[in-house]
């Protein structure tokens, strides 16, 4: 029964992640942590792979269907920075994990940090119409911003999530749907680098293989469904879904924080 719930979470998180451009890891990671069945490292790895499968499908499908609105210049530099930041974030995660006798205590740190990031994202999203945005175009600036994105996302084990959207809204003046596509592209680049780095370092944690395969397949299926829904709804509906999701994530973060403490 629990494994079925894991599979359903992977599917629905990927659907919402594709629609909003948050990847799904920001949902998968805290929700699966709440079950307490696997270590924080295992959940982070599985979540990252599910997000990678969904974003790979979504980005490739948009390209093949000639529906892509990805700003390759800006987003590629952001993705490069995010990939580098992701490597630093993994090292930071290992350092913080080593500070605690109980390795899972780092889950409390992740939950608190994710709550703060999610709350900040919600506040910005609510006041977004009154905030003057910028338009960063310099490659160096894009790489630095991406570096910060990747570091936070990798440490939190969420693959990108709502942080990407806020950055694309504010620093690059993107509208909701283009920001969602560009966010998925950035997540794809950073998660690919993160997975390769984990494999090269020999840090792949133990995980249930059959369950993992089912969850990855559901990640791809979620991308299929999410793309179809995204075409049928407007920016306002996407924003409402995004805000509702942020509230749910904050609630799960609070639960995880007190469970790990």
Helix % is over 70%
**Structural classification:** mainly alpha
How many β strands by DSSP? 0
| H/E element order | HHHHHHHHHH
Give the averaged pLDDT, no decimals: 88
- Alpha plus pi helix count: 10
Provide the low-confidence segments as ranges: none
Morphology: globular
Rg to the nearest angstrom?
17 Å
What fraction of the residues are assigned to beta strands by DSSP? under 5%
End-to-end separation in angstroms reads: 27 Å
Tally of individual domains: 1
> How can the largest sheet be summarized?
none
Explain what this protein looks like in three dimensions.
With 261 residues, the chain is mainly α. The protein contains ten helices and no strands. The protein has helices spanning 2-20, 25-35, 40-64, 72-98, 106-126, 139-156, 161-172, 176-200, 209-232, 235-260.
């Amino acid at each position: 029964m629990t494994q079925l719930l894991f599979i359903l979470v992977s599917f629905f998180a990927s659907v919402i992640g594709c629609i909003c451009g948050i990847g799904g890891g920001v949902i998968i990671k805290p929700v699966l942590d709440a079950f307490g069945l696997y270590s924080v490292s295992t959940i982070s790895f599985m979540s990252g792979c599910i997000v990678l499968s969904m974003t790979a499908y979504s980005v490739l499908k948009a390209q093949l269907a000639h529906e892509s609105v990805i700003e390759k210049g800006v987003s590629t530099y952001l993705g490069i920075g995010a990939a580098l930041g992701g490597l630093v974030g993994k090292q930071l995660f290992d350092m913080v994990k080593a500070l605690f006798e109980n390795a899972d205590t780092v889950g409390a740190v992740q939950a608190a940090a994710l709550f703060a990031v999610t709350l900040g994202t919600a506040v910005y999203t609510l006041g977004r119409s009154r905030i003057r945005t910028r338009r960063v175009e310099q490659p160096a600036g894009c790489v630095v911003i991406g570096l910060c994105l990747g570091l936070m996302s990798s440490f939190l084990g969420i693959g990108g999530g709502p942080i990407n959207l806020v950055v694309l809204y504010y620093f690059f003046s993107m509208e909701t749907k283009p920001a969602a596509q560009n966010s998925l592209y950035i997540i794809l680049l950073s998660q690919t680098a993160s997975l390769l780095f984990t494999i090269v370092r020999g840090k792949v944690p133990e995980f249930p293989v059959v369950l993992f395969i089912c969850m990855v397949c559901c990640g791809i299926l979620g991308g299929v469904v999410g793309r179809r829904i995204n075409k049928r709804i407007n920016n306002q509906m996407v924003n409402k879904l995004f805000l509702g999701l942020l509230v749910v994530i904050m609630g799960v973060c609070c639960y995880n924080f007190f469970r790990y403490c």
